[in-house]
Design brief:
The complex is a heterodimer.
Chain A (H helix, E strand, L loop, with lengths): L1 H6 L5 E5 L30 E4 L3 H13 L3 E7 L6 H5 L2 E6 L10 H11 L3 E3 L9 H9 L3 E2 L4 H8 L1 H10 L7 E6 L26 H19 L4 E5 L5 E9 L5 E13 L2 E7 L6 H17 L4 E9 L5 E7 L6 H8 L3 H10 L15 E8 L1 E2 L6 E2 L2 E2 L2 E3 L7 E5 L6 E2 L6 E9 L2 H13 L2 E3 L5 H8 L2 H5 L6 H5 L11 H21 L18 E8 L2 E10 L2 E6 L2 E7 L7 E6 L2 E10 L4 E6 L2 E9 H7 L13 E3 L4 E6 L6 E2 L4 E7 L2 E6 L4 E6 L6 E2 L4 E5 L1
Parallel strand pairs in A: 2-3, 2-5, 3-4, 5-6
Antiparallel strand pairs in A: 1-8, 7-8, 9-10, 9-12, 10-11, 11-14, 12-13, 14-21, 15-16, 17-20, 18-22, 19-21, 23-24, 23-30, 24-25, 25-26, 26-27, 27-28, 28-29, 29-30, 31-38, 32-34, 32-37, 33-36, 34-35, 36-38
Chain B lengths: L1 H12 L15 H16 L2 H7 L9 E8 L2 E8 L10 H17 L3 E5 L10 H17 L5 E5 L2 E3 L4 H5 L2 E5 L4 E3 L3 H8 L5 H5 L1 H8 L4 E3 L2 H12 L40 H8 L5 E4 L7 E8 L2 E8 L10 H16 L4 E7 L6 H6 L1 H14 L4 E10 H6 L9 E4 L4 E3 L3 H8 L6 H11 L4 H5 L5 E2 L5 H12 L17
Parallel strand pairs in B: 2-3, 3-4, 4-6, 5-7, 6-8, 11-12, 12-13, 13-14, 13-15, 14-16
Antiparallel strand pairs in B: 1-2, 9-10, 10-11
Helix pairs in contact in B: 4-5, 12-14, 16-17
The chains are: A alpha+beta, B alpha/beta.
């Protein structure tokens, strides 16, 4: 070990927590999925299946069950009692309180639910118990079918180190590295870089012993808290890697297929954000080589059911085995879109013991599919920190063609701190990548989400980014393209004009409407509609002189002397604002509009605050006393809702700039909060174990 | 004639002549004038100049009055001018205000006062006091005849604070407006209390602690723009119906979010504003007193374009119980709506009146009776939706069927009972052992909307997502409702 470390001091090393599969849980398929597979009603599978999951994936599984004529049983925690997956199921059983280890991970309660409902099989979805061999064993002991691979496959692939050895034996390319368990001592000064696929991989910076330990402590703590295992694995670092995975499907009769690849390189903090199938990078040869190796591995562990073999692919198309996920993946819909197979149906068939119906040559690549993971999180804070709240308005863009939305929430649902903050998986497909991307743009613009902060601004920026469109992506795409952090859509001068013109037109139509009273005879008989509106529109500290004139539903808006024509329906109640700006149709969203002239518009995915004032009011505004904003450098507020893991300071302590003050955990992710300046701690308003909301005061400095 | 003409011109030049006619017209012209004046005053300086001016007479005195239109609807406005004798009230100043108030009552149009007055003009002595009384009398006479709104835009002290207190709504500007009987200096000399202007009578104090003001806005401009918006909710007089504006929000829109909003656990809170915004046109709700007695929510919204007044218990704050402050807040709002033909929607989730010595000593019985009185005497359309708890006397109070509620709905989560299961069982089965069992039986028998529904106290048990649709339909039906109370000089509300 020591020798290895010495030789690698100048090399970059991969530090990985074992069981790196992340636990994403969420999710309904409210869409028209186009499967080419037929549902043969004569093929008898199960009468009743229990879905040991929640959200999107539970709903997804139930959809297929319904098509196959199988009764469904939902399990839920008490806070999920009115969740969509519960309503969708034929039966529902409460398995405990909100925390996952007391409900969705509570095997005793789930086993009770299975017995009580007489379920013959269990679909675990992803996350939770999907890769838990103990659970699979307990099911087997009671003769309940686990819809997934056999216990030995879960076991073999569950351990990163073991799976690597197995893959090596099956002639699968693996990353050269140290195949053992690392004992980290405090004297080691490591240079470690993480890539891809797992949020527990931590990037450590060179030559900063203090920071290395800090990160190491965080990573091993997280690993321990999430998986009860703090061993770490060290591997060679693959430069400019892409994360490409092969979907495999195997039955219990020794047949195995590869269902092409999924490109999952766009990630933030090692969690996937945008996925597509196929990959722009693979040529048919590489694809076949990867597919065949994936099938070899599946056969080597006698795999049955659907599984995913993840590879890192370097810039020379060398590919290395990373790990195998023995479950249905979050991003499976894109594979379904291009192959026409219903993976859940296949999993159920295989679990019952039916042989696969398809041959390898039957597996097509039909068109292109792209998936965006829509999360309740703030993309402006390290590409996405969780947010919570009630979905006061929610409208999926399923009125658009070739759009599939897998979600498990609806208007009025709560996004709570207990579970994964995923809102939905938005999938679009088309004959070509360009077509799929264009549909994704429209779908994101038409997606109405109110009440929680969401990552649509980031998603829309990614899919319209020239580098993404060219297909030149790696797992470092986000940090490379946004080194300063994501700042939202950057307006061009034309975009600015469009936005200003639309805001002005919206303002005028609202003003005009407020002068229209129905059936009231005491309104002035001399109508006084203005012909010309002289306005001043403020946007991002810039101010524009705007003149608006109206003819019917078309507004001619002069923004700083340039004419922009905006027309639309101007329905002031609708969340969507479809307009035609200079003959280009666009869908904007109006998030808020108040009497003071403040309008918040979502334009090209990003939300912009605009203030529209009449020219006079604007001049007068200059005379208003300025409000002094709160000094934020001396107060530390929680950036997100979560629980306090540790508080490292007490009143009277002197802290240096950048020193850790406390650690907040939300959705199993730990965030270290640091002092913005050197100061003495005035007061501490939180203690370890407490739950805090976004914006709550944690620590005050002098 | 020439003399009159030149005089008129000189008055016009001093920017006094009825310039506020256009204060609220679309151009906002007078806003500029107002601010220019303020600026000039600051440049010239107060002190010595003002004392010199005591023997002068300013054309138009320290108030600007007139009428104009907001979105085409008539309004009378007076605006006190702090740059002339500190906006102090002289006999002439009072006369000007009285003149427009008298006319406003005759033609039936609201009166808006922009208050910025240091109090009585001491130099004029009793004449100034008489002026105050003249205005007070007109405030009282106009009360319930035309809506009266006060916007406090600067420091108002002494007699100047009572006229706003008599009007229907008092709004303030944050950080720059104050209302107090006497300023901090006098407070110091009388009670030896050290207090700043802001603490004593700032917008925060009056909107959150005293309940004197109904809402505060960021600055003068924000306040004026919001006032224009608010004005659109109000009828012009008690002879006019509540206004109906063009509405883009479908009246039969379902609100699916409401089906899951009430939590299963009866002790868990939710936000009543989510319900109100969910059903209102375009989610728009103009809340009155949002920071005072937050356990009750009151304000204006529109249903299919028609103005409605909404009263709702707020389970998020103190479980939505009724206490002294919330009863008074609710009562005053209900009476305003009743006076001006605005239908009242009531959302009920109330565990009862708040018990305890502080409430009893403070007279919760007397104050709670005000809300009861207000709902009972109201003859406008009254629609009530019981979302969850409707316990005890508070059930009766909250616009129940028994107080002439026109349409009373219950959601499936409603519990209409004398009290909660636990308390009830403790009383009925005191000392008995099988309380848990009895509790379950009580819940089964009483903690649901059926006992009330079978007796007709609830007209229907409805699916929450259909609430908006039903209310819009009912309001349409009730628009022609006519109901009168027996003749009386006036009722005797327990003040």
């Amino acid at each position: 070990m020591a020798a290895y470390m010495i030789t690698s001091t100048l090399r970059r090393v991969l530090l990985v927590a074992k069981h790196a599969s992340f636990q994403s849980r969420c999710c309904v398929a409210s869409s028209r999925v186009q499967y080419s597979t037929v549902y043969d009603s004569n093929e008898k599978t199960f009468d009743k299946i229990l879905i040991a999951n929640r959200g999107e994936i539970a709903c997804r599984v139930m959809k297929t069950c319904k098509k196959m004529g199988i009764k469904t049983v939902a399990v839920h925690s008490d806070v999920d009692a009115s969740a969509v997956h519960v309503k969708m199921a034929d039966e529902a059983v409460c398995v405990g309180p909100a925390p996952t280890n007391k409900s969705y991970l509570n095997m005793d309660a789930i086993m009770d639910a299975i017995r009580k409902t007489g379920s013959q099989a269990v679909h675990p979805g992803y996350g939770f118990l999907s890769e838990n061999k103990e659970f699979a064993k307990r099911l087997a002991a009671e003769d309940v079918v686990f819809i997934g691979p056999d216990t030995h496959a879960i076991h073999a692939m569950g351990d990163k180190i073991e799976s690597k050895l197995l893959a090596k034996a099956a002639n699968v390319n693996v990353i050269p590295g140290f195949d053992g368990v690392v004992e980290v001592s405090y004297t080691v000064n490591m240079v470690v870089l993480a890539t891809t696929f797992c949020k527990f991989m931590i990037v450590l910076a060179t030559n900063q012993t203090g920071s290395t330990f800090n990160s190491f402590r965080l990573s091993s703590q997280e690993a321990a808290s999430s998986f009860g295992d703090d061993r770490l694995l060290i591997e060679k670092f693959v430069d400019n890697p892409r994360h490409i995975e092969i979907q495999v499907l195997a039955d219990k009769h020794g047949n195995a297929l590869w269902l092409n690849e999924r490109e999952c390189s766009i990630q933030r903090r090692n969690q996937k954000v945008v996925e597509e199938a196929p990959s722009t990078f693979l040529d048919p040869e590489t694809r076949r080589a990867m597919g065949e190796q994936a099938v070899q591995l599946a056969k080597a562990v006698q795999y049955s059911s659907a599984g995913t073999v993840e590879f890192l692919v370097d810039s020379n198309k060398n590919f290395y085995f990373l790990e195998m996920n023995t479950r249905l993946q979050v991003e499976h819909p894109i594979t379904e879109c291009i192959t026409g197979l219903d993976l859940v149906q296949q999993m159920i068939r295989v679990a019952k013991g039916f042989p696969l119906l398809h041959k390898q040559e039957d597996i097509p690549i039909n068109g292109w599919a792209i998936e965006s993971r829509v999360y309740a999180e703030d993309p402006y804070k390290s590409f996405g920190l969780p947010s919570i709240g009630r979905l006061s308005q929610y409208q999926e863009p399923i009125h658009l063609p070739k759009v599939r939305v897998d979600s498990g929430i609806q208007e009025g649902s709560d996004i709570s701190i207990y579970y994964d903050p995923m809102i939905s998986k938005l999938v679009t497909y088309g004959a070509t990548r360009a077509e799929a991307l264009q549909r994704m743009e429209a779908a994101l613009d038409n997606y109405v989400i109110r009440g929680v902060t969401h990552n649509i601004p980031l998603l829309r920026e990614i899919i319209t980014h020239p580098r993404f469109i060219s297909g030149d992506i790696t797992t470092n795409f986000l940090p490379e393209e946004y080194p300063e952090g994501f700042k939202g859509h950057q307006l061009t001068s034309e975009g600015r004009r469009e936005l200003v013109a639309t805001a002005a037109a919206l303002y005028v139509s609202a003003q005009l409407r407020s002068q229209r009273f129905l059936g009231n005879l005491r309104v002035s008989t001399t109508p006084q509609e203005q012909r010309q509106w002289e306005l001043c529109v403020e946007l991002e500290k810039g101010s524009h002189t705007v003149a608006v004139s109206r003819s019917g539903s078309t507004f001619t808006v002069e923004v700083d002397g340039v004419t922009v024509e905006v027309s639309g329906e101007w329905n002031l109640a609708s969340a969507l604002l479809p307009v035609t700006i200079n003959r280009t149709p666009r869908v904007l969203q109006c998030l808020s509009r108040d009497a003071g002239g403040d309008i918040t518009l979502q334009y090209l995915g990003t939300q912009f605050k605009v203030r529209v004032l009449s020219q006079l009011v604007s001049t007068l505004s200059a005379h208003m006393p300025e409000k002094v904003p709160e000094d934020t450098s001396s107060i530390l507020r929680s950036p997100m809702p979560g629980s306090v893991v540790a508080v490292s300071v007490k009143p009277g302590d002197v802290v240096a700039e950048g020193q850790e003050i406390c650690v907040i955990e939300a959705m199993k992710m730990q965030n270290s909060l640091i002092a913005a300046k050197a100061a003495k701690v005035k007061s501490v308003h939180c203690k370890a174990g407490e739950t805090v909301g976004e914006g709550d005061l944690l620590v005050q400095l002098e | 004639y020439t003399h009159i003409y030149t005089h008129r011109q000189s008055v016009a030049q001093s920017e006094v002549q009825e310039q506020s006619r256009r204060w609220y017209s679309v151009s906002h012209l007078s806003v500029q004038e107002r601010i220019d004046r303020k600026r000039n005053a600051a440049l010239i300086g107060g002190g010595q100049k003002r004392i010199d001016a005591q023997h002068k007479r300013f054309a138009g005195d320290s108030v600007v009055t007139g009428q104009g239109r907001i979105n085409g609807r008539l309004v009378y406005v007076f605006s006190q001018d702090f740059t002339v004798f500190g906006g102090s009230l002289s006999g002439a100043h009072a006369q000007k205000i009285c003149k427009i108030m008298d006319q406003a009552m005759m033609v039936g149009a609201p009166v808006i006062g922009l208050n910025d007055s240091g109090g009585a003009r001491i130099q004029e002595g009793v004449e100034s006091l008489a002026g105050y009384a003249d205005i007070f009398l007109r405030n009282v006479m106009a009360s319930g005849v035309v809506p009266q709104i006060s916007l406090i835009m600067g420091p108002c002290a002494g007699g100047a604070v009572y006229s706003p207190a008599l009007t229907d709504f008092t709004f303030m500007v944050k950080d720059t407006s104050y209302l107090f009987i006497t300023g901090p200096d006098v407070v110091k000399s009388v009670t030896n209390e050290d207090v700043t202007q802001e603490e004593l009578g700032g917008a925060k104090t009056h909107t959150a602690v005293s309940g004197v003001a109904h809402r505060a806005f960021e600055n003068d401009i924000d306040a004026l723009l919001n006032l224009r918006n608010f004005f659109n909710f109000l009828p012009l007089s008690n002879q006019d119906p509540a206004p109906v504006t063009e509405c883009h929000d479908p009246s039969d829109r379902l609100v699916p979010g409401l089906d899951t909003i009430v939590p299963f656990e009866t002790t868990k809170a939710y936000d009543m504003l989510d319900i109100i915004q969910g059903i209102a046109d375009e989610r728009e709700f103009f809340e009155i007193m949002p920071n005072y007695a937050k356990n009750i929510v009151v304000g204006f919204a529109r249903m299919n374009g028609r103005t409605v007044g909404i009263v709702g218990n707020q389970p998020k704050v103190a479980s939505g119980c009724l206490d002294i402050n919330s009863s008074v807040k609710g009562a005053r709002f209900v009476r305003f709506c009743d006076a001006f033909n605005i239908p009242i929607l009531t959302f009920v989730d109330v565990p009862g009146f708040l018990p305890g010595t502080s409430q009893e000593y403070g007279g919760i019985i007397r104050h709670g009776a005000k809300l009861l009185f207000a709902f009972a005497e109201a003859t406008v359309p009254k629609i009530t939706i019981i979302t969850r708890k409707a316990y005890g006397g508070a059930y009766d109070v909250m616009s129940s069927k028994h107080l002439r509620g026109d349409v009373n709905y219950a959601w499936p989560s409603a519990e209409v009972a004398v009290m909660g299961a636990k308390g009830a069982v403790q009383i009925i089965f005191r000392g008995k052992s099988n309380q848990a069992e009895q509790e379950a039986e009580y819940v089964e028998k009483f903690a649901n909307p059926f006992p009330a529904a079978v007796r007709g106290f609830v007209d229907d048990i409805i699916v929450p997502s259909t609430t908006r649709k039903r209310i819009c339909r009912d309001l349409e039906v009730l628009a022609s409702k006519k109901q009168t109370n027996p003749w009386k000089k006036h009722a005797n509300i327990p003040l």
